[in-house]
Amino acid sequence: MYIVFEGIDGAGKSTQINLLKDWLDQNGFDVETVVEPTDSEVGKLIRKILQRPDATTDRIQKTLGLLFAADRMLIMDKLNDDSKVILSDRSFISSLAYQEPAEWIEQINKYAKEPDLVLLLDVDVKTSVNRCSKEDEFENEEFLSKVKANYLDLISNFNHEIIDASTGVNKVSTDIKKAVAPYMGICPDCIR
Q: Record-annotated residues binding ATP?
């Protein structure tokens, strides 16, 4: 099972992935987590480029698009391991939400694995910006408003659940467990 957490920066993806991993581990599942960008050499290069002041320019965005697609290809074996539950902090869907043009992003990611379930953590842009570290050029209201709109437009193309990520860590975690439970053969009504 390949479950992807998506959402704008500051939505709480990392926190919620860890909480879901712990819960699934406790329920006897073999769980592995991945983060995009990865810790590969390509992923490290992506992280470095994201810090550049010109990271939002068209040229750098296209470069990042290619690098993210390459980084994804490096983890395909892990994503295709059906013996594990894979929880991913982002996927090619992030590239579709964050980068342009969409047709080109789709083309360079045509071999990316499609998630079995996408959990879109939805949070207000102002809340997101307040939660962010302000480490890169993308953590601003104008840009994140556009990205959020992109997510909401494209999410219907995937098997998904939209989770209100503004309700507090515990409530969000419970909502995620209830969304994931049926896929894992767990009674969602038994989750509190």
A: 7-14
